[in-house]
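Sequence, structure tokens quoted for completeness.
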Amino acid sequence: MPEASHVASGKVREIYALDDERLLLVASDRISTFDVVLPTEIPDKGRVLTGLSGFWFARTKQIVPNHLLTLRDDGRSTECRRLEMLPIECVVRGYITGSGWKDYRATGEVCGHRLPEGLRESDRLPEPIFTPATKAQTGHDENITRDDAAELVGRERFAEVERIALELYDFAAAHAETRGIILADTKFELGLDGEERLVLADEAFTPDSSRFWPADNYTPGGAQPSFDKQYVRDYCESVGWDKTYPGPELPDDVVAGTRSRYVEAFELLTGIRFDDYIADPDVVLR
């Protein structure tokens, strides 16, 4: 890629500088679980993440502008605006699960939100809650309170971030519901442009950043099947892996099952055949 210089690598994405104003984000097919990138890739996973993000960017810009400039023909690369990223992860929960469930069981609260007594795992919350987290360079992000987040970004800015985060969740959850999918929770990143305006960046409402559950299988009281890394996590748990680097190689059936789940999520949420996206990535922007 002679026109770009490599500036960073994430668990999934490679980041290149095109010039002082633009970055190129390339979503690989890498997959991580328990915070370890595994040696086996999932074919087309990067295209699913990129295509879904483009789909949501095109449909949420009335709520908040986003960093997307161009979606490239390979379906996994996006030209984006450079931003000054906020030092928090924006997490919205509509259901009690994951780390929120663990916190609730221990304290009755999630990130300073006192929740009703007697909730079951995967219950729908009375209303969605904004539960920020710190950005971890290694390991897990750490849940923090709203007051802690306000100290990091300023109280006025925090109020704007919380409002936008909840609006984004409400929009995506309502759309997903029409497609037979529950958006249990999600996280995304916001940054500031040169005029100090908030901009949605990185990825949006993908199986890597969100918990999507099939609505027709929803049964509160335990964990739910999801459109994400479930096959991979289950396999890694079954082989007695100690969850440290290097991770185990994945067998073909786990790879195929995981790819199928990602592609199914893409097609259900967008209403677009994945093969049509591969042929013309801009179809998700229309």
In short: The chain has a mean pLDDT of 95. The CA atoms of residues 121 and 164 lie 27 Å apart. The first helix runs from residue 45 to 60.
